[in-house]
Amino acid sequence: MPAPEKTAAEALATPVQFIKGVGPQRAELLEKLGLRTARDLVFFFPRDYQDLTELRAVAQLEEGMVVRMRGAVVEVDQRTSQNGNTVLGVLVRCGNGHVRLLWFNQPYMRQRFTVGQEILLTGRPKLNGMMWEIAHPALQWIETEEEWKGKLLPVYPLTEGLSQGQIRKIVEGVVNAYTEILDEVFPDEYRSAHDLAGIGQAVSQVHFPLDRASLQHARRRLVYQELLVLQLALALKRQQQRERRQAPALEATAKIDLRIRRLFPFELTAGQRQVIADVAADMARPHPMNRLLQGEVGSGKTVVAVYALLLSVAHRHQAALMAPTEILARQHADTLAGLLAASQVRWGLLTGGLTPGERKETLRRVAAGELDLVIGTQAILQNDVEFARLGLVVIDEQHKFGVRQRARLRQAGLDPHYLVMTATPIPRTVAMTVFGDLDVSTLRDGPPGRQPVNTYLAKADQRDQWWEFFAKKLREGRQGYVIVPLVEESVEVEAANLQQAFESLANGPLEAFRLGLLHGRMAPAEKEAAMASFRDGRTQVLVATTVVEVGVDVPNATLMTIEAGERFGLAQLHQMRGRVGRGAQAGFCCVFAEPAGDDSRRRLEAFVGTTDGFKLAEIDFEIRGPGDLLGTRQHGLPPLRIADLAKDGALLEEARRGAQELVALDPGLTRPEHARLQRMVLNRYGRVLELGDVG
Fold first, then answer.
1. Which of 242, 333, 497, 677 has the most CB atoms at less than 10 Å from its CB?
2. How far is CA 580 from its chain centroid?
3. 165 and 147 in contact (C-beta within 8 Å)?
4. Is pLDDT of 400 > 60?
5. What is the DSSP annotation of 264-323?
C-alpha cells in the first residue's frame, strides 16, 4: 500500500538535512542562519542581487567610478616589505584587457586564488601608469558558466563554510520543488484589484528573477503581504482593545475642565488644546485609551500629561506617571508640586532611590488609595506595587519601555487608560508599525517665546574661540552643559573621558567658573544633589553624559558643548540640544566631532542644518534604516523578512488601508475566504500581541 502524500504544511516542515544537497553537516551551517525547514529556505530572501547584465570591459573603465567586471585569474603575487607589511597583487584578464587587484596587509587572501579561476569583481578602478588597479574589491567566485550569464544573481546572507554557489543551489532546488504547493492567502479578485502576483510566481521570481521588472513585481507581492499581515494584526489588536477591554469612563465635564485649567499659570497653545481634546474624548469612553503623544523638544507634552492625570484624579481614580530615569521622575515631581500647591491632590514618588522604609510606606498608601498620583520610574512596575483604583498610566519616553512593560500594569477588572509620550519624533512608517496599536497625536510647535538654538559644527582649531565665547556668556549670568560620551576610559572606544574633560576644563578655559559632574553611575542622592545645584545656579557648568538627554529643564542654561559628536545618534543629539534655549535667552550648541564616514558626516550636517525634530527623524531613518526598531528587545514584534520601512513607505500605506478595510468588512477575519490570512496573522503575531482569541 503506497504511503499517503504529505500535506503542503508537512512537506514545508521537512528538516533541511533531508533536502537534496544538504545533509547533516551542511544542515548545521544552515542552522546558524536560522534555516531549519524547507519553509525557512523558501522564505530566505536574497539580501541583494549581482546585476550580471551590465559588466564593464577594461576599455570602458573610468577612474573612481564603481564598476562590475568578470575575469579570470592570470597571476598571483604576494610581497612582504621590510617593515612586515604585505601586498597581495592578483592579475585578472577581463576580455581583451587586464586589471590588477590589490590587498594590503591581508595575507590570508592569498590562499583564495588559483590561476584560471573565474571571478566577478566590484570596485573603484585607479590608473597606475598603463595598468588599471582596484584596491580591496568585492569578489564573487563563479562556479558554473550557467550561473552568471545575463542574470540578476541572488546574494544571500552567509555563514563560514557556506558559499554563495552552495546556498544558491540549495535554495533553487527547494524553490523548484515547493513553490507550487504554497498556500495562496489572497482570493483571486483581491490579487487582481491590488496588482499582486501569485505566491508561487512571486517566491520564484524574487529568488531567481528573469529581469528587473519581474523582480519588482514579485517583491511587491511579498512586501505587501508581509506588511498587510502586520497591519491586520495591529488593526485586530486595536479592535480588541476597544471592544473587549473595559476602562473607567472619565469625562472632562465643564466643571472639571475649568478646575484643571485654572492650575496652569499660562495660556495653552493651539496644539496643546487639540491634543487635550483628543485625550479627553478617549478617556470619556468605557474602553482603554491607547494614545501616543509625540512632540518636538519643548513643545509642552507635560501639560497634556498633567491634564490627563488630574482628569483621572477628579473622578477619584489614581494615576501613575512613569519616567525612564530618576532625575526625570523627580523633575516631574517638582513640576507637579508647584502646580498642585493649592490643590488637595495627594501625590508621592516611587523610585529605586527610596529607603526600604520609605518604599514600604509609599506602597501601603498606594494600595490603600491614600495617594491619588504616583510619580516614578520602572519601580512602579514591580510585582509588589498594587493600586486601589488605577485609572490612568502616563509613560514618558515610550521608546525606553516597550509593549511588554506597558502590559504589566493591567489589573483584574477595569484596565487603566494609557497615554505614552516621546520627545523623539517618530518617522511616519515607524509610527504605523511599531506603534500601530496606538492612536497618535502630534505636538509640533513650541510655546510662544521659545528661543532658537544656534548650532555649530566646529573643528579642533576652533576650540579656543568657542571656549572664549562660552566663558563670556557664563560671565553674563548664563549656564551651560558639556556633554561627554563616556564615564571612564575605554580601550575599545577612543572617546572623550568625563573625568578628564572635567579636569581639563576646571584647570583650563573654565577655571574661573563653578563646575559640576553628572553621570548615570552616580548614586541617586548624588545625581539629585548635582542637578539641584545646577538648577539653583550654584553650579555654572554641568559636565555630564547623556543622562541629561531627556527632560532636564533649566531655563537659564543656554550653552551646550558636545564632545565626540560622531558617537551620538541624530535623535540623541537633537534631544541633548533640547536642553538649552528653554528660557527667554537664545541657545548656543557647539559640536566637536571627527566623522568617520559619509553617514556620520551627513548626520552631523543635518543636525547643524535644522532644528526641526521631525525632519531630523526622517533623515536619521534614511541614514540608518529601521535597525532594531522592530526587534524583540523593545517591542516584541518579529523582524520583517523582506519589507524595508525606509524604502517601502508607499506600500505600507497601501497595506494599512487594505488591513483597515478587511477588518471593517470581516472584523475577526472569520469568513472562509480569509481563513488562511487569519491563520497567518495568528502564527506571526498572535502570541506577542495577545490575539489568540481572534475569531
1. 677
2. 25
3. yes
4. no
5. -SSPPPHHHHHHHHHHHHHHTSSS--EEEEEE-TTS-HHHHHHHHHHHHHHTT-EEEEE-
Question: Tens of pLDDT along 382-396?
Answer: 878 889 999 999 998
| Span 434-488, pLDDT tens digits | 777 788 898 887 666 677 899 999 988 999 999 999 999 999 999 999 999 875 5
What is the bridge-based pairing of β-strands 290-295 and 152-155?
unpaired
Report the distance separating Cα 402 and Cα 171, nearest Å: 36
CA 509-515-519 angle, 5° bins: 120
Domain ranges of the chain: 1-52+167-182, 54-149, 254-284+300-422, 453-610
* d(C-alpha 249, C-alpha 282), whole Å: 9
**Quick one: DSSP state of residue 216?**
H
E strand segments, 368-523: 373-376, 390-396, 417-422, 439-443, 453-458, 479-483, 515-518
Amino acid at 162: L
- pLDDT score, position 413: 57
> How are beta strands 417-422 and 390-396 bridged, if at all?
parallel
The CATH superfamily of 453-610 is P-loop containing nucleotide triphosphate hydrolases (3.40.50.300)
Domain 1-52+167-182 shares a fold with domain 254-284+300-422: no
pTM of this prediction?
0.71
Q: Which CATH architecture has domain 254-284+300-422?
A: 3-Layer(aba) Sandwich (3.40)
Lookup: cell for 496 = 572623550
1-52+167-182, what's its fold?
DNA polymerase; domain 1 (1.10.150)
Q: Are 587 and 558 in contact (CB under 8 A)?
A: yes
Residue 184: closest CA among 685, 684, 675, 676? 676
Confirm if 307 and 276 have CB atoms less than 8 A apart: yes
Q: Is 69 in contact with 124 (CB distance < 8 Å)?
A: no
H or E element, residue 527: helix 524-535
> Are the CB atoms for 157 and 135 separated by under 8 Å?
no
Q: In degrees to the nearest 10, what's the CA dihedral of 687, 690, 692, 695?
A: -140
Q: Cα(610)–Cα(567) distance, rounded to whole angstroms?
A: 19
Contacts of 491 (CB under 8 A, 6+ apart): none
Q: Is the dihedral of CA 601, 602, 608, 613 positive or negative?
A: negative
Q: 253: which residues sit within 8 A by CB, 6+ positions away? A: none
Write out pLDDT tens, residues 50-95. Answer: 877 778 889 899 887 888 888 999 999 999 888 888 999 999 999 8
DSSP string, 97-122: EEEEEEEES-GGGGGG--TT-EEEEE
Rg (CA), the chain: 30
Cell of 426: 517618530
DSSP structural state of residue 641? S
| Secondary structure (3-state) at 162 | coil
pLDDT of residue 147: 58
**Which CATH fold topology does 54-149 show?**
OB fold (Dihydrolipoamide Acetyltransferase, E2P) (2.40.50)
